[in-house]
Amino acid sequence: xxxxxxxxxxxxxxxxxxxxxxxxxxxxxxxxxxxxxxxxxxxxxxxxxxxxxxxxxxxxxxxxxxxxxxxxxxxxxxxxxxxxxxxxxxxxxxxxxxxxxxxxxxxxxxxxxxxxxxxxxxxxxxxxxxxxxxxxxxxxxxxxxxxxxxxxxxxxxxxxxxxxxxxxxxxxxxxxxxxxxxxxxxxxxxxxxxxxxxxxxxxxxxxxxxxxxxxxxxxxxxxxxxxxxxxxxxxxxxxxxxxxxxxxxxxxxxxxxxxxxxxxxxxxxxxxxxxxxxxxxxxxxxxxxxxxxxxxxxxxxxxxxxxxxxxxxxxxxxxxxxxxxxxxxxxxxxxxxxxxxxxxxxx
Length: 347
Known about the structure:
The protein is of the alpha/beta class. The chain contains 8 helices and 19 strands. The chain has helices at residues 2-7, 18-29, 60-69, 137-146, 182-196, 216-225, 277-285, 324-345; strands spanning 11-14, 34-38, 52-53, 58-59, 76-80, 84-90, 93-98, 103-106, 108-111, 115-117, 134-136, 159-166, 201-206, 230-241, 247-253, 258-264, 266-271, 273-275, 312-314. A 7-stranded mixed β-sheet has the order 11-17-12-13-14-15-16. Strands 5-2-1-9-19 form a 5-stranded parallel β-sheet, covered by helices on one side. Helix 2 (18-29) runs parallel beside helix 8, helix 4 packs parallel to helix 5 (182-196) and helix 5 (182-196) runs parallel beside helix 6.
Protein backbone atom coordinates (compact mmCIF):
# COMPACT_ATOMS: atom_id res chain seq x y z
CA UNK A 1 0.00 0.00 0.00
CA UNK A 2 2.82 2.42 0.86
CA UNK A 3 4.37 2.03 -2.60
CA UNK A 4 0.99 2.63 -4.18
CA UNK A 5 0.60 5.83 -2.16
CA UNK A 6 4.02 6.98 -3.33
CA UNK A 7 2.97 6.47 -6.95
CA UNK A 8 -0.13 8.63 -6.59
CA UNK A 9 -0.11 12.28 -7.53
CA UNK A 10 -0.53 14.54 -4.45
CA UNK A 11 -3.91 15.61 -3.08
CA UNK A 12 -4.53 19.28 -3.88
CA UNK A 13 -6.20 21.17 -1.02
CA UNK A 14 -7.37 24.68 -1.83
CA UNK A 15 -7.69 26.86 1.24
CA UNK A 16 -5.44 27.14 4.29
CA UNK A 17 -8.12 27.83 6.89
CA UNK A 18 -9.25 25.37 9.60
CA UNK A 19 -10.85 22.94 7.12
CA UNK A 20 -7.90 22.86 4.75
CA UNK A 21 -5.30 22.55 7.50
CA UNK A 22 -7.16 19.79 9.34
CA UNK A 23 -7.71 17.78 6.16
CA UNK A 24 -4.05 18.17 5.18
CA UNK A 25 -2.95 16.94 8.59
CA UNK A 26 -5.18 13.86 8.54
CA UNK A 27 -4.30 12.86 4.99
CA UNK A 28 -0.56 13.37 5.52
CA UNK A 29 -0.75 11.18 8.63
CA UNK A 30 -2.30 8.47 6.48
CA UNK A 31 0.78 8.61 4.26
CA UNK A 32 -0.56 10.67 1.36
CA UNK A 33 1.31 13.55 -0.24
CA UNK A 34 -0.58 16.83 0.03
CA UNK A 35 -0.23 20.25 -1.62
CA UNK A 36 -1.92 22.91 0.53
CA UNK A 37 -2.66 26.24 -1.18
CA UNK A 38 -3.43 29.48 0.66
CA UNK A 39 -3.98 32.80 -1.10
CA UNK A 40 -2.84 34.87 1.90
CA UNK A 41 0.70 35.21 3.26
CA UNK A 42 -0.03 32.92 6.20
CA UNK A 43 -2.29 30.04 7.16
CA UNK A 44 -5.27 30.36 9.48
CA UNK A 45 -8.11 31.88 7.51
CA UNK A 46 -10.66 33.91 9.49
CA UNK A 47 -9.95 32.17 12.81
CA UNK A 48 -6.75 34.18 13.29
CA UNK A 49 -8.84 37.37 13.41
CA UNK A 50 -10.99 36.26 16.36
CA UNK A 51 -10.29 36.64 20.06
CA UNK A 52 -12.18 33.80 21.77
CA UNK A 53 -14.37 31.01 20.44
CA UNK A 54 -17.90 30.26 21.66
CA UNK A 55 -19.28 28.75 23.77
CA UNK A 56 -16.33 28.10 26.13
CA UNK A 57 -14.14 31.15 25.36
CA UNK A 58 -11.20 29.08 24.13
CA UNK A 59 -8.55 31.53 22.81
CA UNK A 60 -8.71 31.46 19.01
CA UNK A 61 -4.96 31.83 18.79
CA UNK A 62 -4.44 28.53 20.62
CA UNK A 63 -6.64 26.66 18.14
CA UNK A 64 -5.05 28.42 15.17
CA UNK A 65 -1.49 27.69 16.32
CA UNK A 66 -2.35 24.04 16.95
CA UNK A 67 -3.80 23.65 13.45
CA UNK A 68 -0.82 25.40 11.86
CA UNK A 69 1.67 23.23 13.77
CA UNK A 70 0.04 20.13 12.25
CA UNK A 71 0.89 21.35 8.74
CA UNK A 72 4.62 21.06 9.46
CA UNK A 73 4.67 17.53 8.11
CA UNK A 74 7.05 15.95 5.62
CA UNK A 75 4.11 14.90 3.42
CA UNK A 76 2.70 18.45 3.16
CA UNK A 77 3.97 20.93 0.57
CA UNK A 78 2.75 24.38 1.55
CA UNK A 79 2.08 27.14 -0.99
CA UNK A 80 1.18 30.54 0.47
CA UNK A 81 0.44 33.68 -1.56
CA UNK A 82 -0.90 31.35 -4.24
CA UNK A 83 -4.41 31.82 -5.60
CA UNK A 84 -5.86 28.84 -7.43
CA UNK A 85 -8.16 30.30 -10.07
CA UNK A 86 -9.05 27.17 -12.03
CA UNK A 87 -9.47 23.44 -11.40
CA UNK A 88 -10.38 20.84 -13.98
CA UNK A 89 -10.43 17.09 -14.50
CA UNK A 90 -7.87 15.67 -16.91
CA UNK A 91 -8.86 12.05 -17.55
CA UNK A 92 -7.32 10.16 -14.58
CA UNK A 93 -6.04 13.18 -12.63
CA UNK A 94 -6.93 16.73 -11.62
CA UNK A 95 -5.23 19.97 -12.54
CA UNK A 96 -5.12 23.22 -10.58
CA UNK A 97 -3.95 26.44 -12.23
CA UNK A 98 -2.78 29.41 -10.18
CA UNK A 99 -3.25 33.09 -10.95
CA UNK A 100 0.41 33.26 -11.99
CA UNK A 101 -0.18 30.42 -14.50
CA UNK A 102 1.54 27.62 -12.58
CA UNK A 103 0.01 24.20 -13.12
CA UNK A 104 -0.28 21.60 -10.34
CA UNK A 105 -1.39 18.02 -10.95
CA UNK A 106 -3.15 15.94 -8.32
CA UNK A 107 -4.91 12.66 -7.74
CA UNK A 108 -7.85 14.56 -6.24
CA UNK A 109 -8.89 18.04 -5.16
CA UNK A 110 -10.43 19.27 -1.90
CA UNK A 111 -12.15 22.66 -2.04
CA UNK A 112 -11.89 24.26 1.41
CA UNK A 113 -12.13 27.89 0.37
CA UNK A 114 -14.07 29.12 3.38
CA UNK A 115 -16.20 32.25 3.35
CA UNK A 116 -16.22 36.01 3.31
CA UNK A 117 -17.87 38.37 5.76
CA UNK A 118 -20.87 40.35 4.53
CA UNK A 119 -19.90 43.86 3.44
CA UNK A 120 -21.85 46.06 5.85
CA UNK A 121 -21.55 49.12 3.59
CA UNK A 122 -24.29 47.49 1.51
CA UNK A 123 -26.68 48.35 4.37
CA UNK A 124 -26.28 52.09 3.89
CA UNK A 125 -29.11 52.93 6.30
CA UNK A 126 -27.04 51.52 9.17
CA UNK A 127 -24.16 53.93 8.57
CA UNK A 128 -21.19 51.57 8.39
CA UNK A 129 -18.31 53.33 6.65
CA UNK A 130 -20.11 56.64 7.17
CA UNK A 131 -20.12 57.08 10.95
CA UNK A 132 -17.05 55.86 12.90
CA UNK A 133 -19.29 54.80 15.79
CA UNK A 134 -20.76 52.03 13.63
CA UNK A 135 -18.53 48.95 13.53
CA UNK A 136 -18.91 45.27 12.68
CA UNK A 137 -18.53 42.20 14.86
CA UNK A 138 -15.21 41.56 13.09
CA UNK A 139 -14.02 45.07 14.01
CA UNK A 140 -14.95 44.46 17.64
CA UNK A 141 -12.90 41.25 17.68
CA UNK A 142 -9.85 43.29 16.65
CA UNK A 143 -10.50 45.60 19.60
CA UNK A 144 -10.67 42.59 21.92
CA UNK A 145 -7.33 41.34 20.59
CA UNK A 146 -5.81 44.78 21.19
CA UNK A 147 -7.49 44.87 24.63
CA UNK A 148 -8.88 48.31 23.82
CA UNK A 149 -12.60 48.83 23.19
CA UNK A 150 -13.23 52.53 22.51
CA UNK A 151 -15.85 54.70 20.88
CA UNK A 152 -15.39 57.04 17.91
CA UNK A 153 -13.78 59.63 20.21
CA UNK A 154 -11.23 57.14 21.54
CA UNK A 155 -12.98 56.99 24.91
CA UNK A 156 -14.42 54.13 26.94
CA UNK A 157 -17.98 53.63 25.65
CA UNK A 158 -20.82 54.10 28.13
CA UNK A 159 -23.14 52.02 25.96
CA UNK A 160 -22.78 49.45 23.20
CA UNK A 161 -25.63 48.17 21.04
CA UNK A 162 -25.49 44.98 18.96
CA UNK A 163 -27.71 44.43 15.91
CA UNK A 164 -28.32 40.89 14.69
CA UNK A 165 -28.91 39.57 11.15
CA UNK A 166 -26.94 42.15 9.17
CA UNK A 167 -26.69 40.57 5.73
CA UNK A 168 -28.58 37.44 6.76
CA UNK A 169 -32.30 36.64 6.56
CA UNK A 170 -32.60 39.87 4.63
CA UNK A 171 -34.38 40.30 1.30
CA UNK A 172 -32.72 43.63 0.60
CA UNK A 173 -29.23 42.12 0.70
CA UNK A 174 -30.42 39.06 -1.21
CA UNK A 175 -29.43 36.60 1.53
CA UNK A 176 -32.50 34.78 2.83
CA UNK A 177 -30.56 32.20 4.86
CA UNK A 178 -29.42 32.27 8.49
CA UNK A 179 -25.65 32.57 8.97
CA UNK A 180 -25.99 30.35 12.04
CA UNK A 181 -23.14 31.79 14.15
CA UNK A 182 -24.17 35.45 14.56
CA UNK A 183 -26.60 34.99 17.47
CA UNK A 184 -24.14 33.15 19.68
CA UNK A 185 -21.30 35.45 18.62
CA UNK A 186 -23.31 38.45 19.87
CA UNK A 187 -23.85 36.68 23.20
CA UNK A 188 -20.14 35.87 23.45
CA UNK A 189 -19.11 39.40 22.52
CA UNK A 190 -21.58 41.00 24.92
CA UNK A 191 -20.06 38.99 27.78
CA UNK A 192 -16.55 39.93 26.68
CA UNK A 193 -17.52 43.61 26.69
CA UNK A 194 -18.96 43.32 30.20
CA UNK A 195 -15.86 41.51 31.44
CA UNK A 196 -13.62 44.20 30.02
CA UNK A 197 -15.94 47.16 30.73
CA UNK A 198 -18.31 46.19 33.56
CA UNK A 199 -19.89 49.67 33.76
CA UNK A 200 -20.85 49.77 30.06
CA UNK A 201 -24.52 49.22 29.22
CA UNK A 202 -24.98 46.50 26.59
CA UNK A 203 -28.10 45.86 24.48
CA UNK A 204 -28.74 43.30 21.73
CA UNK A 205 -31.44 43.87 19.10
CA UNK A 206 -32.67 40.63 17.50
CA UNK A 207 -35.42 39.16 15.30
CA UNK A 208 -35.27 35.89 17.20
CA UNK A 209 -32.38 34.22 19.00
CA UNK A 210 -31.24 30.90 17.60
CA UNK A 211 -29.40 29.20 20.44
CA UNK A 212 -29.23 25.80 18.76
CA UNK A 213 -25.78 24.58 19.80
CA UNK A 214 -24.66 22.76 22.93
CA UNK A 215 -24.27 25.24 25.83
CA UNK A 216 -25.55 28.14 23.66
CA UNK A 217 -28.78 28.59 25.61
CA UNK A 218 -26.86 28.43 28.89
CA UNK A 219 -24.47 31.14 27.69
CA UNK A 220 -27.41 33.32 26.65
CA UNK A 221 -28.99 33.02 30.10
CA UNK A 222 -25.63 33.60 31.73
CA UNK A 223 -25.20 36.88 29.82
CA UNK A 224 -28.46 38.19 31.30
CA UNK A 225 -28.30 36.82 34.82
CA UNK A 226 -24.65 37.52 35.60
CA UNK A 227 -23.72 40.36 33.26
CA UNK A 228 -27.00 42.22 32.82
CA UNK A 229 -27.04 42.21 29.02
CA UNK A 230 -30.39 43.51 27.75
CA UNK A 231 -32.10 41.82 24.79
CA UNK A 232 -34.63 43.74 22.67
CA UNK A 233 -36.77 41.96 20.11
CA UNK A 234 -36.83 44.48 17.32
CA UNK A 235 -35.20 45.88 14.24
CA UNK A 236 -33.09 48.99 13.82
CA UNK A 237 -34.32 50.86 10.76
CA UNK A 238 -31.82 53.70 10.72
CA UNK A 239 -28.60 54.87 12.35
CA UNK A 240 -27.14 58.36 12.21
CA UNK A 241 -24.23 60.20 13.80
CA UNK A 242 -24.62 62.89 16.45
CA UNK A 243 -22.56 66.03 17.03
CA UNK A 244 -20.68 64.39 19.94
CA UNK A 245 -19.65 61.29 17.98
CA UNK A 246 -22.38 58.98 19.22
CA UNK A 247 -24.92 57.03 17.15
CA UNK A 248 -28.65 57.76 17.18
CA UNK A 249 -30.80 54.72 16.46
CA UNK A 250 -34.39 54.50 15.24
CA UNK A 251 -35.93 51.11 16.00
CA UNK A 252 -39.03 49.27 17.09
CA UNK A 253 -39.58 47.01 20.07
CA UNK A 254 -41.71 44.38 18.33
CA UNK A 255 -42.73 42.71 21.60
CA UNK A 256 -44.07 45.93 23.09
CA UNK A 257 -45.18 47.28 19.70
CA UNK A 258 -43.50 50.62 20.41
CA UNK A 259 -41.12 52.75 18.34
CA UNK A 260 -37.76 53.49 19.94
CA UNK A 261 -35.21 56.25 19.57
CA UNK A 262 -31.98 55.94 21.50
CA UNK A 263 -28.31 56.88 21.36
CA UNK A 264 -25.35 54.59 21.82
CA UNK A 265 -21.58 55.05 21.81
CA UNK A 266 -20.99 52.05 19.56
CA UNK A 267 -23.34 50.20 17.21
CA UNK A 268 -21.99 46.72 16.43
CA UNK A 269 -23.38 45.10 13.27
CA UNK A 270 -23.39 41.30 13.50
CA UNK A 271 -22.37 40.60 9.92
CA UNK A 272 -23.26 37.29 8.30
CA UNK A 273 -21.39 34.72 6.23
CA UNK A 274 -21.29 34.71 2.44
CA UNK A 275 -19.62 32.36 -0.03
CA UNK A 276 -16.09 33.47 -0.83
CA UNK A 277 -15.27 34.63 -4.34
CA UNK A 278 -12.94 31.64 -4.73
CA UNK A 279 -15.69 29.22 -3.75
CA UNK A 280 -18.17 30.63 -6.26
CA UNK A 281 -15.60 30.83 -9.06
CA UNK A 282 -14.22 27.28 -8.70
CA UNK A 283 -17.65 25.74 -8.17
CA UNK A 284 -19.16 27.54 -11.15
CA UNK A 285 -16.38 26.16 -13.36
CA UNK A 286 -17.29 22.63 -12.29
CA UNK A 287 -21.08 22.99 -12.24
CA UNK A 288 -21.37 22.47 -8.49
CA UNK A 289 -22.41 25.99 -7.50
CA UNK A 290 -25.66 26.35 -5.59
CA UNK A 291 -27.78 29.04 -4.01
CA UNK A 292 -25.94 32.18 -2.93
CA UNK A 293 -22.69 30.94 -4.51
CA UNK A 294 -21.97 28.14 -2.03
CA UNK A 295 -20.74 24.71 -3.16
CA UNK A 296 -23.22 21.86 -3.60
CA UNK A 297 -22.31 18.38 -2.38
CA UNK A 298 -23.47 15.14 -3.97
CA UNK A 299 -25.88 14.35 -1.13
CA UNK A 300 -26.10 16.40 2.04
CA UNK A 301 -27.14 13.45 4.20
CA UNK A 302 -24.97 10.59 2.94
CA UNK A 303 -22.22 12.10 0.76
CA UNK A 304 -21.78 15.64 1.99
CA UNK A 305 -18.04 15.79 1.21
CA UNK A 306 -18.44 14.36 -2.29
CA UNK A 307 -19.44 16.14 -5.48
CA UNK A 308 -20.88 14.94 -8.78
CA UNK A 309 -17.29 14.63 -10.02
CA UNK A 310 -15.02 11.71 -9.13
CA UNK A 311 -12.03 12.99 -7.20
CA UNK A 312 -13.46 16.43 -6.33
CA UNK A 313 -14.34 16.92 -2.65
CA UNK A 314 -15.66 19.66 -0.34
CA UNK A 315 -15.04 20.61 3.28
CA UNK A 316 -16.17 23.37 5.61
CA UNK A 317 -17.91 26.68 5.06
CA UNK A 318 -17.58 26.57 1.28
CA UNK A 319 -20.85 24.56 1.50
CA UNK A 320 -22.80 26.61 4.07
CA UNK A 321 -22.26 28.51 7.35
CA UNK A 322 -20.62 26.42 10.07
CA UNK A 323 -19.00 26.97 13.45
CA UNK A 324 -15.30 26.16 13.90
CA UNK A 325 -15.92 22.81 15.63
CA UNK A 326 -18.29 21.72 12.86
CA UNK A 327 -15.79 22.83 10.22
CA UNK A 328 -12.98 20.78 11.73
CA UNK A 329 -15.23 17.73 12.07
CA UNK A 330 -16.29 18.13 8.43
CA UNK A 331 -12.65 18.28 7.33
CA UNK A 332 -11.97 14.99 9.13
CA UNK A 333 -14.93 13.46 7.35
CA UNK A 334 -13.62 14.72 4.00
CA UNK A 335 -10.24 13.14 4.76
CA UNK A 336 -11.86 9.72 5.18
CA UNK A 337 -13.80 10.11 1.93
CA UNK A 338 -10.66 11.10 0.02
CA UNK A 339 -8.68 8.19 1.47
CA UNK A 340 -11.47 5.78 0.52
CA UNK A 341 -11.52 7.18 -3.01
CA UNK A 342 -7.75 6.90 -3.44
CA UNK A 343 -7.83 3.28 -2.27
CA UNK A 344 -10.20 2.50 -5.15
CA UNK A 345 -7.64 3.93 -7.59
CA UNK A 346 -5.09 1.43 -6.31
CA UNK A 347 -7.28 -1.63 -6.94
